[in-house]
Amino acid sequence: MGLIRKMNMDQEQTEPFLSSGEPSGPIETRWDNHRFATKLVNPANKRKYEIIVIGTGLAGASAAATFGELGYRVKAFTFHDSARRAHSIAAQGGINAAKNYPNDGDSIYRLFYDTVKGGDYRSRESNVYRLAQVSNEIVDQATAQGVPFAREYGGLLDNRSFGGAQVSRTFYARGQTGQQLLLGAYQSLSRQVSAGTVELHTRSEMLEIVVKDDRAVGVVMRDLTTGEVSSHSAHAVVLATGGYSNVFYLSTNAMASNTTAIWRAHRKGAYFANPCYTQIHPTCIPASDEHQSKLTLMSESLRNDGRIWVPLDPEDARPPNDIPQAERDYYLERQYPAFGNLVPRDVASRAAMRMIDENRGVGPLKNGVYLDFKSAIDRLGKNRIEERYGNLFEMYERITDENPYEVPMRIYPAPHYTMGGLWVDYNLMTSVPGLYSIGEANFSDHGANRLGASALMQGLADGYFVLPYTIGQYLSDYLNTDPVATDDDAFVEVETEVKERNARFLAIGGTRSVDHFHRELGKVMIEYCGLVRSREGLEKAISEIRTIKQEFWTDLRILGDSDSLNQSLERAGRVADFIELAELMCRDAIDREESCGGHFRVEHQTNDGEARRDDENFSFVSAWEWTGEDTPQVRRTEPLEFEYVALSQRSYK
Amino acid sequence: MHERSGWRQWLGGFFSSSVGLKWIMAITGIGLLGYVAAHLFGNLKVFTGMDAAGDYYIDLYSEALWHLGGHLVPAGFLLTILRVGLLSVFALHIYAAYTLASRNRRAKGQERYDASRNWAASNYASRTMKWGGTIILLFVLFHLADLTFGFANPEFHHGDVYANIIASLERWPVAILYIVANIALVFHIYHGTWSLFQSLGSASPKYNGLRRGFAAVFAWSILVGNVSIPIAVLAGWV
Amino acid sequence: MDLSLKVWRQAGPDAVGGFKSYEAKGISPEASFLEMLDDVNEHLNEAGEDPIAFDHDCREGICGMCGVMINGDPHGPQSGTATCQLHMRKFNDGDSITIEPWRASSMPVIRDLIVDRSAFDRIIEAGGYISINTGAAPDANIIAVPKEAAEAAMDAASCIGCAACVAACPNSAANLFTAAKIQHLNLLPQGQPERFTRTVAMVETMEEYFGSCTNHGECESACPKNISIDFIAWMNRDYVKAQFKTFQKTGQ
């Protein structure tokens, strides 16, 4: 506990280093030892504590339910109309666990190893190992809750290989694993609501964190139906509000997914870690026109049987089925013979992007590559393919009006997941005591790139199995203290800020809709801070973002009032925060002079165009500290040490 | 967890819950369908003429019903019990239907869709159960007055079933009333026969295809059988 | 393509609502239905009129947030498709489209096309779960589940809670939703211990809010996940079985 690591890095000596508080000793024993060392809260005392959970996706719902079961008094908030709608629901592919049911050589250590390597060596070993350890319990828990995972004929659980893993460790429920796991968590949460341990507030959006005496004491919420702004206090606040891919406007995230909760926390003192680490998912349906509002992802599992190609000749305008084999370039199989179509997401996405940049893209806007099931259908028969991907094929056909059994799918990379997020220590506490962040909202486990089927795993690990233990460490110091009263100046002040900010949006009275600014921001971000980044581009982006910000605050038009349901007003707050975050993302991307995982800098590539990491100078977490409205954030660093997984350049050739 | 009180607790969910009431509707529905079938079976004796002694078979049949149970019980005893039973079944069916309909009215609220609904699965029969049921009820009252008690039939003579039928149905407006009412009845039992499987919880992907077919065959048989009588009378075949 | 829209506008839960007509011009056939509404809203905002409020989120047909009555069809004319996945190519240039919120007394309008579906949460809270605390689960492979049962449970579990079934039902019944939720758990071995208490509690909570089933089957046709009304039959069966107290006591 509290171990300050020896610094072996070439940073300015004045730079303060962050300590993760991770335990030392053999990695297999760290979590156990840590749990033993962590203070417990006596069962009879748990009901004396109040905990606020913001967000009811996988992480939030599982945490709130588990807190309730343990006896804490919980207030859970979601901006949806029900705790069952968070975007966790859209995850299709599956959830990893190191069960080794297929007997193909998997183990906790291998899952740990794959995840650290997949994260391009930018994650914390202790956290990842813990994640791999609890992965098995998650599958047990979900199964017991009634999650209808796919089964073999013998009645036991089926596994598939997913997202470049060399073993079959992914559990899945048709194409709806996210929905089924979320329903499991939501049902557990509903059980606690009915038991009275959790008070659930729906259609409520968190607009501010309240910090008093350097610790988080509550939140200010807005009821989205009545517009009422209210304060809620607690002993601890947990943010489980997901990722910020919507900073790109077009992403696979749900329309309402946003950064507001974590960005407001950042402004109140929580460090924002690795904001530039974003994942662009290779198998999305290409945009069909200008006005598209979002992109749809199709499970990466499609790459298990589909073959990706483009025509050799950029001018080739023939329909795909008329292009003979010899004139096709199965570029992934060509460039990465060992992994072929199953290379990790970042590699697959960049390769597709290169094809499109070389003008070899396909489809009416030349913005896709083919994902072809012809050979799989010939090999396995249409029925097997339908069994595996039937619902994905249907979804594709609904959106594009093309039948993927006959014509190859077209796919395109789209922003999908953000590995960055609030910096948290080993206990998942942010740099503000009493404020926790779990799931995609934190930065913790995926490093610079997330492997397929690990997002669900991390969200549920944090919510079911990590935070419920670690939160005791902080809470135990506050036994028999009441939460700060909501009429305290600290709350009143923040409530006023919130109301004034809303009034300000309404008062601008400009000409442009909030969506206009969001789209403009998205264009800048995807162009300069997307798959491929350069110092020059990022600097340009920062100046454009500042222009957008300036225009936003002078030319925005929000109609209606703040005393009723006003969707434009909701979006205005979210987009204003995205604009601020966008600048930080670009600054972080400039700062990180290397290519790693989802962050690819053109200045740092090998001769054959692969990412070149700089472990000597950048093996650390960048955690940005807010220093005020008019001064740029200061970067703090948490050095990363790799005692178990040897650093090596990832190669999938 | 959910708590019930008073008589509802004692009677379980059968009377308090809509699913229970639907179960009652299905069970009583089966009883009524059985009655309709038996009634038709008996009525078809109108086509069988008379025996050697010059008694119409249908009159003998009526006589036999009256003496159901033979000498074990007083004459008319079992028939009365059956009638009371039938009446209770009928009453229960109507009670459940009425309760459910008023619950549904409350659940629907005030606002209605402006665009006309594009019905995808329901059919005329299913959407007219309420009205069909009401028509049937009114018809049954008339039918009792006409052929059981005789108020609606000036030439009614107790026990002369055959003569009563002919006398009644020779009046063409009455014959048409019988035909129309039977069409309403058949719509009602077409949906009812299918629907009762659902309400009783009998569904299996393997046999579901048969439920509609069974309902159709049953409904058509009742229609053809029942309507054949007024037509035959009007046409002078009997 | 150009379209004439007739849209329900209502400023708040207690306000009087009514229809307003709008022209949607130059809509791409590739646009989704909600993108068409986005476009209309963009123009309304320019013209100084409050944009049309409608619920939506994932726009990939899984979160269940969206859903409106489109020309008398819940979620529009394409079967097995949520409103967000409906594309304008299913309409013709010049079409008139009437867009209304879901209607049921337990799903009152909050604003415009947004309705309050919280009654669904109450049904789940009544018993739509398996009572197991975090950490108490045995190894996942201890319980073998026949593949057919797992598949049937998955069919039921695919419900997205959009309430199209209630909107479609001539009786405003929520039987398809409730049955799917009950049968998802009742079909699995894990759900057996609470099978009958769950069924009774959920059914009777459902009935506090919604109408009853007259087996029209409209819900099944409206369901964006094509959930079968067989589940309603099985729910009915479990409910009736539960009335015989022995079932509850022996759990069989």
Would you write up a description of this structure?
The complex is a heterotrimer of chains A (653), B (238) and C (252). Chain A contains 18 helices and 20 strands. Chain A has helices at residues 27-37, 43-46, 58-70, 108-118, 125-145, 177-195, 260-267, 302-305, 331-335, 345-357, 374-380, 382-400, 455-475, 489-508, 514-529, 535-555, 567-591, 615-618; strands at residues 50-54, 73-77, 95-96, 160-161, 168-171, 198-201, 204-212, 215-223, 229-233, 236-239, 272-273, 278-284, 307-311, 328-329, 369-372, 409-418, 421-422, 435-437, 620-625, 634-639. In chain A, the strands form five sheets. Chain A has a five-stranded parallel sheet with strand order 6-2-1-10-18. In chain A, strands 12-16-15-13-14 form a five-stranded antiparallel sheet. Chain A has a four-stranded antiparallel sheet with strand order 17-11-19-20. In chain A, helix 3 packs parallel to helix 6 (177-195). The longest helix of chain A is centred in the last third of the chain and has 25 residues, at 567-591. The model of chain A is unreliable at 1-14 (pLDDT under 50). Chain B is built from ten helices and no strands. In chain B, helix 3 (18-43) packs across helix 10. In chain B, 26% of the residues are buried. In chain C, 36% of the residues lie in helices and 11% in strands. The longest helix of chain C is centred in the first third of the chain and has 15 residues, at 33-47. Chain C has two domains: 3-111, Beta-grasp domain (Ubiquitin-like (UB roll)); 117-250, Fumarate Reductase Iron-sulfur Protein, Chain B, domain 2 (Orthogonal Bundle). In chain C, the strands form two sheets. A five-stranded mixed sheet of chain C has the order 2-1-5-3-4. A two-stranded antiparallel sheet of chain C has the order 6-7. The model of chain C has no long low-confidence stretch (mean pLDDT 95). Chain C is built from nine helices and seven strands, in the order E-E-H-E-E-E-E-E-H-H-H-H-H-H-H-H. The interface between A and C is large, with 83 and 80 residues.
Question: What are the key terms here?
Answer:
heterotrimer, A: 653 residues, alpha+beta, FAD/NAD(P)-binding domain, Flavocytochrome C3, Chain A, domain 1, Methane Monooxygenase Hydroxylase, Chain G, domain 1, five-stranded parallel sheet, five-stranded antiparallel sheet, C: 252 residues, Ubiquitin-like (UB roll), Fumarate Reductase Iron-sulfur Protein, Chain B, domain 2, 2 domains, five-stranded mixed sheet, two-stranded antiparallel ribbon, 36% helix, 11% strand
